[in-house]
Amino acid sequence: MAKGQINVQTENIFPIIKQFLYSDQEIFLRELVSNATDATQKLKTLSNIGEVKGDIGETQMEVKIDEKAKTLTFSDRGIGMTEEEVEKYINQIAFSGAEEFVEKYKDKASVIGHFGLGFYSSFMVADKVEIFSKSYKKGSTAVKWECDGSPNFTLVEDDTRKDRGTDIVLHISDDSKEYLGEYKIKELLDKYCKFMAVPIKFGTKEVNDPEHEPKTTADKDGKETTEDHKKITIDNVINNPTPAWTKAPADLTEEEYKNFYRELYPMNFEESLFHIHLNVDYPFNLTGILYFPKLKKNLEVQKDKIQLYSNQVFVTDSVEGIVPDFLTLLHGVIDSPDIPLNVSRSYLQADSNVKKISNYISKKVADKLEELFKKDRKAFESKWDDIKIFIEYGILSDEKFAKKAEKFMLYKNVDGKYFTADEYKTKIEVNQTDKNSKVVYLYTSDKDAQYSYIDAAKSKGYDVLLMDSPLTAHLVGKLEQADTNTTFTRVDGDTIDKLIEKDAEITSKLTEGDQNVLKPVIEEVVDKNTFTVNFVSLSESDAPMTVTQAEFMRRMKDMSAMGGGGMMGMGNMPDMYNLSVNSNHPLISKILGEKDEAKQKDMAKQAADLALLSQNLLKGEELSKFIKRSVSLI
Predict the structure, then answer these.
(1) Cα 380–388–495 angle (5° rounding)?
(2) Is 477 helix (H, G, I), strand (E, B) or coil?
(3) In what order do the strands lie in the sheet with 143-147?
(4) What pTM was computed for the model?
(5) What letter does residue 535 receive in the DSSP assignment?
(6) How far apart are CA 15 and CA 149, in angstroms?
(7) Which of 56, 311, 537, 564 gives the lowest tally of CB atoms within 10 Å of its CB?
């Protein structure tokens, strides 16, 4: 029997581990299962290169709960440890067995992790930890190591263990009893170990016996009865050791990609639109599958769906720093042993590889989108409404992606037709170029609410885009910067003749003096804090009064509401509108000529309310008064 002190620099190492080393207490389960997986993978590597002779037999590991004994046990049939190795790898905690193994077998070993202090995370939840281990080496004697969370340990031979491998037994502390619950452990295994490379057994389950076909019999009256399925008990293997991303794309069918998406997100009942399979081994190792979901308008809801793995060990679902921010809208898996992690494997460290990986994924996604567009444009157009917010986000946040996106970004007009940027500019530049030689892109964010403005634009032969994304205000600014000879304006930003000003102007029927007389009459019937009254010279067939909202102010408010790009607090400012009075409309002349002041005021109020009503700005008491006044006028 050996006794001693663990080789550490301070006797306070365990409180440090327990409180500061790991960001989440539950990480202990991931670390211990990862260690068991490593031990098994090492054995397989040695078997493959001939250093272990004969059949290595069953290699699955097992997690067991004993509520009565208050223990949680992690068992594997991997490489095991001799007494000297326990002394070296467990007692000298700064030494990583995995790192030494990689160095020795780096030309032959396949998937080996770097664990370092991982084993000691067990003391976050356990008062005492025991290790029972027997090396695969011939003539080895099993050993038992025990520690109560102090630097003191005991190490003795263990005659009871006959098989190779390791059992790690945690004696769970009273303040961590939740880890003796079957549901809790299953939840953590599902979170961290769903795709570990070695099968993990957790309990048993009953299934129908595949070799027993239920018999159907009939009584004397001909009534048929089918016997119940015969049940058998099998190991409950909770993980998938060979997930789709570990296979070659050529070996996977479309249905297998869909099934893997369902496996990743069992509560997501919508299918993905398409996927991208990542597979690169130079200048870094990276595999994975990214799926394009149907994106909703709430950007934040979509994030944190990409899962990051290192050698099939779950690390995090917060992948900022690994992928560009706009790509966090995608779903799927990224697996790379070349992503540097700190001791808890929970946070990324600064590294040039991370930037290379980020750029690679961005390029791969852009290439895939271009390929889909060229291969089947109609199919791409059918998906546009579901992926446009992702592409817009990419254009705004990634210059290289924005450049590539020029080849597949689409404009959609209110008639449901799609155009590339070049196609659309060619379509509108003759008719929608203003007197300052700028091509004016008219757009609507709501076809129904802005119908009257769209109709006015169409009556002039103009085309109107549908741009209803929450990123529109940011996007149009970016597009204007890219081409200074263009300008974007929403159709309700002003009267249509002001939005696209031509050289020929319509002459006003009202003199400046007439306008000065009429303006205070109209200002009296609207809220001066919300509406600015101005006169415009339009056709007699245009509306007598129109409510508009200046493009610049509305765009700044929208950008501020989305975050960034606007002035501080602008998103909380009240809306301001223009009430544009058509000086050529007969009704306006009639209001001007009315001598009865009360009747003149009613006419002005009715015309103004009609303009407000068309934009859903007439509410409450004012709407009720308008209805009564309308009935009276009829």
Answers:
(1) 115
(2) helix
(3) 2-5, 152-157, 143-147, 126-134, 165-172, 71-76, 61-66, 200-208, 231-237
(4) 0.75
(5) E
(6) 9
(7) 564
- Report the C-alpha gap between 354 and 177 in whole angstroms: 39
Of 71-85, 252-266, 297-311, 479-493, least confident by mean pLDDT is 297-311
> Within 488-617, where are the H helices?
496-499, 512-523, 551-562, 586-593, 597-614
Domain at 2-198, CATH class: alpha beta
For tokens 């595999």, the residue is 287
What ranges make up the beta strands (E) of 67-177? 71-76, 126-134, 143-147, 152-157, 165-172
Burial of residue 615, with CB atoms counted within 10 A of its CB: 0-12 exposed, 13-18 middle, 19 or more buried: middle
Residue 330 φ then ψ, to 5°: -80, 170
pLDDT, tens digit (0-9, with 9 covering 90-100), for 326-353: 888 889 999 988 776 544 444 454 556 6
Spatial distance between the Cα atoms of 570 and 579, rounded to a whole number of angstroms:
22
Q: If you average pLDDT over residues 146-151, what whole number do you get?
A: 83
Q: Decide: 492 and 450 in contact? Cβ < 8 Å.
A: yes
DSSP of 288-351: EEEEE----S-HHHH-S-EEEEETTEEEES--BTTB-GGGGGSEEEEE-TTS-B-TTS-SB---
Which DSSP symbol is given to 526? S
Instruction: Tell the burial category of 385 from Cβ atoms under 10 Å away from its Cβ (0-12, 13-18, 19+).
Output: middle
pLDDT attached to residue 510: 85
Cα–Cα separations (whole angstroms), residue 355 to 245, 264, 360, 394: 22, 26, 9, 16
CATH number, span 409-499: 3.40.50.11260
Q: 512-549+573-633 has which CATH code?
A: 1.20.120.790
Asked if residue 470 has a cis previous peptide bond (ω within 30° of 0), the answer is no
H/E element holding 454?
helix 451-459
Query: Mean pLDDT lowest for which of 267-271, 417-421, 449-453, 611-615?
Result: 267-271
Structure tokens of 92? 């000298």
Whole-number Å distance between alpha carbons of 495 and 452: 11
Instruction: State how far the Cα of 219 lies from the Cα of 234, in Å rounded to an integer.
Output: 35
Question: 366 CB contacts (<8 Å, ≥6 apart)?
Answer: 394, 400, 401, 404, 405
Q: In the chain, where are the structural domains located?
A: 2-198, 244-380, 409-499, 512-549+573-633
Tokens 């998937």: give the residue.
Answer: 111
Q: The domain 244-380 is classified under which CATH number: 3.30.70.660, 3.10.129.10, 3.30.230.80, 1.10.238.10?
A: 3.30.230.80
Query: Tokens 């009296």 sit at which residue?
Result: 524
Phi, psi (deg, nearest 5) at residue 122: -60, -25
**CA nearest neighbour of 387 among 414, 409, 355:** 409
pLDDT of residue 20: 46
CA dist 358 and 339 (Å) reads 11
